[in-house]
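Please produce the structure of this protein holding pyridoxal-5'-phosphate.
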Amino acid sequence: MSRVYNFSAGPAVLPEEVLKEAADEMLDYRGCGMSVMEMSHRSKVFEGIIQDAEADLRSILSIPQNYKVLFLQGGAHLQFAMIPMNLMKNKVADYIVTGQWAKKAYQEAQIFGKANKIASSEDKTFSYIPDCSDLPISPDADYVYICENNTIYGTKFKTLPNTKGKTLVSDVSSCFLSEPMDVTKYGLVYGGVQKNIGPAGVVIVIIREDLITEDTLPGTPTMLKYKTHADANSLYNTPPAYGIYICGKVFKWIQKFGGLEAMKKHNEEKAKILYDFLDESELFKGTVRKEDRSLMNVPFITGNEELDAKFVKESKAAGFENLKGHRSVGGMRASIYNAMPIEGVKALVEFMKKFEVENK
Ligand SMILES: *Cc1c(COP(=O)(O)O)cnc(C)c1O
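Below is the modeled complex.
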């Protein structure tokens, strides 16, 4: 067996320890004589798995009692629709568009009501986070929406926008559990887990209880009401059971790691190695304004498309996978999520140095 350094933006690297444990339990989960994949979601055993997962997530993030944790399906994309369907009481919402995911959410919301783009960084290919300290928030906005870490462009909100009292809704798919987060600052925060927490197929929604109501937009299907899932503790229908089980293992791994303060330190250390190199390199350049740089997704270029392609090809041959940038922006991108070991980043920088010398 040989594992590569996997810099994929998602689905992405998971802790080896978690994968090994899952492998050990594959045929017989703790004496049940069956895999978690094979068991009833109504069984006592699975109830234990989902309850432990929720309890551990609550403890990691210090989620207050007046917030529900929901394990849902449909990826981040379904939240682009569920959020307006459930929260747009006045049919007005403000969107801060800092990349492709925020833009897609903004466009989806237009199906349901008046979505206002109150700020954007599209003028400079989403390479920065706009100043959000005094935006023209709509007086009747039901919420203000952000994508907190922009997976494709590699920017991150370092301070949350001033929503002037409006509910903040945030997509944290690609920075979930990478550092501490104050849940009380949000009305709703959600993320697809395939970036930093588990296998594709699960999306976690953390929502303040007063936002969970029967009063959804007319025509909202039962499956797309937060209330349906909140009332049933995420067991309204068959949940993505195996995915939730792996998420639970990753939560335990984070706790063993020392929690989110320790994780932040680990992620800052990794990102610094890569950004410091990009800042001194004569060949490679980062593409993001320094103060807005993401700890998780690091896009970079050589400025020459042929050389970029050569780098991607040679890095792959050397055991560094998925360094090609998103198809919409080109260049390269190294995603260095929680489970990427520091050795992986160090090895990548060594390889980049060698490539630079050979291609000057
Ligand atoms: C990957 C990603 C999405 C899309 O996720 P799906 O699960 O494929 O719908 C949305 N937002 C962010 C920030 C992402 O990184």
